[in-house]
Write a structure and sequence with these properties.
By secondary structure, the protein is mainly α. The longest helix has 28 residues. The chain has a single domain, classed as Ferritin, core subunit, four-helix bundle (Ferritin, Up-down Bundle). It has nine helices and two strands. It has a two-stranded antiparallel ribbon with strand order 1-2.
Amino acid sequence: MDEWPDPAVDYMQAIVDTKLILGHRYGQWALAGPSLEDDIGGASASQEEIGHVRQLASRLQAQGRDLEWIHGDRDATEFANAACLDSIDGEWPTYMASTAPADRAAWYLLDAIAIEDLQGMLTKMGEDEYFHLEYHDARLETLAESAPDTIQAALETTLPQALSFIGPATYDEETDPVFTSGFTDRSVAEIREAFIAHYTDLFEGTAVSLDGVDFDAPDPDTWDEARRRVGGGSISEADLRQLRGTENKLFEIN
C-alpha cells in the first residue's frame, strides 16, 4: 500500500473515530428505542459500524497508526469524532438528530476517497450505509411531525457540528489538502454542498425550520484540522472506559 499524505491519514482517522463512537451510541440505544424495530435497527447498525472500524483501522495501521491506540488506548481528547456524538442528552428525537448527521457526514467523507485499492471495501460499506441513512431520514421525517420543536432545537446544534467534522467551506478544489493530494475526488466544499442540500430538502415543507442553523460553520480560523471541530470537547471518561472494555478486559476475544 502506498504511503498516504499526513492530512489524508488524519482525514481517515476522523472517519474511523466517528464510526467507532457511532457504533457505541447505536449500541447504547439498542434497548432504549421506542419500538422493537428501532432496537433491532440500532443493534444492527452498531455491529456494522464496528465492522467498518476494524477494516479501516487495519488500513490506518499500515500507515503507521498503532492499532490499540485506534481502538481506544488514548485520552478522550485525542479522538477526532464528530462533536455531535460527544454526548447525547435527551430522548429519542435528540438521539436521532445527533446520530443521523454524523453518520451521513462520515459516509460522505468516506465515499469521496479515490484510492483504488480501497474501492471494493468502500462499495460494501456503502451498501450498509444506504440502509442506515434511509432509516435515519424516514425517522427524522416522522419526528418532524411529532416532535418538531425538539428536532429543530437539536439540529441547530448538531448540523453545524457535523459541518465542522466535514470541514470549512474555504477548503475548495484549490485549497483542500486531501483533495489536492489526490486522496479524494471531491473537495470539502463540494461535500458540504451535498450535505446541506440533503437536509434542506429533507425538511422542506415540514414544521422544522433550519433558518437558525449556522450553515457557514466552522470558522476556518478556529477549526482544528486534526480533530475536525471547533473548540475543545470530547467523549466522556465513562464512554472511554466502555470503549476499552476496562471493567471486563480479562474476558475479551483474542
